[in-house]
Amino acid sequence: MAIFKDKHYLRVKLDKETDESLWMQCKSCGELVFKRRVRENNNICPYCGEYFFLTARERIESLIDEGSFTDISKPIMAADPLLFQDTKPYPQRIEDAQEKTGLADAIIIGSVVISEIAVIIGVMDFRFIGGSMGSVMGEQICHGMEEAIRNQCPFILVSSSGGARIQEGILSLMQMAKTSVVRAQLAEQRLPFISVMTYPTTAGVQASIASLGDVIIAEKGAMIGFAGRRVIRGTIAEELPPNYQTDSFALEHGSIDRVANREHLREELSNVLRFFVRQ
Amino acid sequence: MAIFKDKHYLRVKLDKETDESLWMQCKSCGELVFKRRVRENNNICPYCGEYFFLTARERIESLIDEGSFTDISKPIMAADPLLFQDTKPYPQRIEDAQEKTGLADAIIIGSVVISEIAVIIGVMDFRFIGGSMGSVMGEQICHGMEEAIRNQCPFILVSSSGGARIQEGILSLMQMAKTSVVRAQLAEQRLPFISVMTYPTTAGVQASIASLGDVIIAEKGAMIGFAGRRVIRGTIAEELPPNYQTDSFALEHGSIDRVANREHLREELSNVLRFFVRQ
Amino acid sequence: MAEKKAIELLETKIQELRELNKMEEIDMSGEILLLEEKLEALKIRTYSNLSDWERVKIARHPERPYALDYIDKAFTDFYELHGDRIIGDDRALLVGLAQLQGKPVVLLAQQKGHSTEENKQRYFGMPRPQGYRKAKRIMALAERFSFPLISLIDTPGAYPGLEAEEFNIGGAIANNLLAMAKLQTPTIAVIIGEGGSGGALAVGVADRVLMLENATYSVISPEGASAVLWKDKGKTKQAANSLNLTAEHLLKLAVIDEVIPEPLGGAHKDPQKTIASFKKVLTRHFAEVCDTPPDELLAARYKRYRSLGCYRTLSDNR
Amino acid sequence: MAEKKAIELLETKIQELRELNKMEEIDMSGEILLLEEKLEALKIRTYSNLSDWERVKIARHPERPYALDYIDKAFTDFYELHGDRIIGDDRALLVGLAQLQGKPVVLLAQQKGHSTEENKQRYFGMPRPQGYRKAKRIMALAERFSFPLISLIDTPGAYPGLEAEEFNIGGAIANNLLAMAKLQTPTIAVIIGEGGSGGALAVGVADRVLMLENATYSVISPEGASAVLWKDKGKTKQAANSLNLTAEHLLKLAVIDEVIPEPLGGAHKDPQKTIASFKKVLTRHFAEVCDTPPDELLAARYKRYRSLGCYRTLSDNR
Ligand SMILES: [Zn+2]
Ligand SMILES: [Zn+2]
């Protein structure tokens, strides 16, 4: 675990795959695109508008005033309380994910400035075991909210998660309760919590902290819901509409406040934050 | 208005029609029934079980410990703030209803005992201009809740109303707000409010005080809802299910807590009150 | 009717003279002034004695400014919030954040459609339970952050339909009344068009209730009253005149606090002027409620609604 | 398997001897005693080392007592309340008032069906948003009247289906977690059968969390874990053993406070004894929480959930 040599262990390194070649082919439209151009375009294909995953660090950069990010994540990483082993031991899985992402776990907590407003932000990284929420993510989210309370500033959470970290069993389930009780403290303090749902915000994360925003904004193209297509088809063989669990489905059914394109998300946050922060 | 000669102006006299003959024909099954037998049976047809209207006073008697009723209604009656005249002047309509029912308006407020528990009860009388809620009913309901606060006892409201008293225009609409603000006081005082919905509990009454019970019990056969069949068919020509706005419809759609047969309503109230009254 | 035609003719004539006046060699300013005076007099004669039924028609006029027109012009930075978090997002009752005089406020706005397509989407301005529950959710937000709440009321009534009944529209309205009774933040309601019964009141319990001059607010529509009370669809005008549904009447009945003047002939004759008038009155009340301690507001709100109604006391010996 | 057969045989034999014993001239009591001792030893050997997967099967046993069995026997005067006041009345999550030791309590109870018909009605014990919102409504009632809240948890999970998604089941669960975090009344949750993930937790945030000996509580079913992690439906047993989903494990992980003993072989072997055991443990905790000032309860509840989880601290020089 050489990546943890300095205090800034959460600094994101460029994804190796990204560096191997200068060009990539868009999976959606098939066009060959210069990678840097995609990166500079918020990981959106300049030809067809398809969104590719943003790493947590890229996401942060895309949302904040330049250079305003300070990593304030707690210096923690996953333990292995259940000595869990599926196709590989859990510690091995963690190490692999850390190597791949340069992250300690699937979330970064940052102190940042958005349109001159200081906020605490938490951003998930889907590359890290599907952005799954285990003890570390739960603790980091709570830590983020507590930092917001300490600084009396807004809290933003950008979700990208398939749900709970199964390898931590019941302890990952308990993170739903844990983040909720701290969220109650944030409400008590009358501090705003803006929840941003991106692809995907599902299961345990959607059924807890992500759905508890004072304002909930979905990124265009997000997947939002509790039980996935596969589970529903497996359980009850029900016909599902084509827009099932898309951003438009969530908006139509009243689960979220707004949908924003990735390129407008920063402005969106700036617009909503202004109401909550007394100048 | 000779009926108001003494202080006990709200004492119900027997409905004249009831006294004209000893027998009545059930509209539902067609059987000829001895009227007294119907009356003693809570105005339920002993042959087919059809419910006939109960007067407010009959309703009270059917629910309380014998002899425990004291009329504590405010000594008020309708004014004519709008000088309203439809097919007849509003004061005339009021006088006719008073003559017919022996009531000052469409509700009685009583101090009563149910299974040895002292409660304040409000009971509407559908015979009085369709149990419509005008300024008097609004004031009486508030008065009843305030008496419950004064006595620190539960409040029960038995609704039987087609909605607002149109002849008082906007002032009747305002009774929805008026009863709601006083209901908030009752909640503040942590005193229970049991709402009993009978045939019919609709429009302005259903969309305000009647729907704000801590527990809502419908009498079997009640009609419960906001917009009547006629309005809906007039506006949008929609197909309505046969059980539209029945007690079963309300239960199925989660608008009420329970349905009770008329003959069990007293026991029902006794059962629920026991939870809220510390012995 | 004849007077309205005359007004239109005069207006056309004045316009023509103005065109002529633009040519350098012709000076018609004297004639124009004369005609304008005549027009003003005629307008006053025609519009200042509008019957209640005529006002009903003005309140429903399809060119009358709707909620979003006020939001666009009298507020800044409208940021709409969607959805009740339960069932759906009602398009007849919009909610959101906005700024008024540099202060954040929460808006509840009943919005009619300008086209058939839009009206279909907005259910002709008739909110469903989804709308009322969205409003209730946003009331909680207003309370948490001490945002004043401003309602713009313009609806024929709550939507009557099977789905609405299935989703307990009566209960939704009732719970909004209760929520607004207790809401720990300043609240202002403005009836800008039609104040249709419980569907209007469900967002209308407030510390200040203001009303446009030609808006209406009624327990039932004149058509409904005509059918229910007279059993005769032809008594609509009579019903309108009986219901006391205009701003003038409601001020006397102490149901509203102030009438917001409209241009002669109604808001649609000059939307800009109407909205300016709206803003002027609103901001005055807004400043007042924002300066009042919350406890006082709640006590006054309680007193206001507790005392609404009109009845006679019975003496013992009558 | 062979041991279970032996147990059944022994039980039959003892029963036969008891019949014989009833005849006056025959005294078999010595033999009976002997066999009973043998049976007990065999049972202990068989059942006290149940694998986690065996416990999963016991937790799901169709003859296991369900919520209403506990309500009937351990509480009095159950008075069910129906409906979420919004959409409908869920039959997989029952709520109501009841008395426990002469005190009124609010019950939340996940109820499975005993027959196919009943299971259809109860969605196999999988609550829909209607159920969770009904529970939330009743939490507010509990708070208003300071009724302690007791949850009986027994569900494979929240209902996965289109309707549930349309009605925002995730949001409904999330809002229950938040409500239970803040609830100003004593709360106890008892996992009596299956504690299926978020669907269980949504009524399970409490001051005390108790669990029947053979109940399970897990972030995912063994079948689900097998499919997701091993991509192999055959790894169910292995998944069950990995998930730490039994009461014994959960006590060690500080997720639950106490294990409620079951009769040997599981609750279904002796429901009466199970319910007595349940009542004994429950009432002890009930007395404790009722005697604790609300502020203290809330502070302890906060601390409890705030500290759940297990992670390593990174040192700077690793
Ligand atoms: Zn492309
Ligand atoms: Zn009959």
Features:
heterotetramer; A: 279 residues; alpha/beta; 2-enoyl-CoA Hydratase, Chain A, domain 1; eight-stranded mixed beta sheet; two-stranded antiparallel sheet; 10 helices; globular; disordered N terminus; C: 318 residues; 14 helices; binds zinc ion
Topology at a glance:
The complex is a heterotetramer, with two copies of chain A (about 280 residues) and two copies of chain C (about 325 residues).
Chain A: H1 16-20, E1 23-25, E2 32-34, H2 35-40, H3 56-63, E3 70-71, E4 76-78, H4 90-101, E5 107-114, E6 117-124, H5 135-151, E7 155-161, H6 169-188, E8 193-202, H7 203-206, E9 215-219, E10 224-225, H8 229-236, H9 247-252, E11 258-260, H10 265-276
Parallel strand pairs in A: 6-7, 7-8, 8-9, 8-10, 9-11
Antiparallel strand pairs in A: 1-2, 3-5, 5-6
Chain C: H1 2-22, H2 29-47, H3 52-59, H4 67-74, E1 76-81, E2 93-100, E3 103-110, H5 116-121, H6 129-144, E4 149-155, H7 162-166, H8 169-182, E5 187-196, H9 197-201, E6 208-212, E7 216-218, H10 222-229, H11 236-242, H12 247-252, E8 258-260, H13 271-290, H14 294-306, E9 311-313
Parallel strand pairs in C: 3-4, 4-5, 5-6, 5-7, 6-8
Antiparallel strand pairs in C: 1-2, 2-3
The complex binds zinc ion (2 copies).
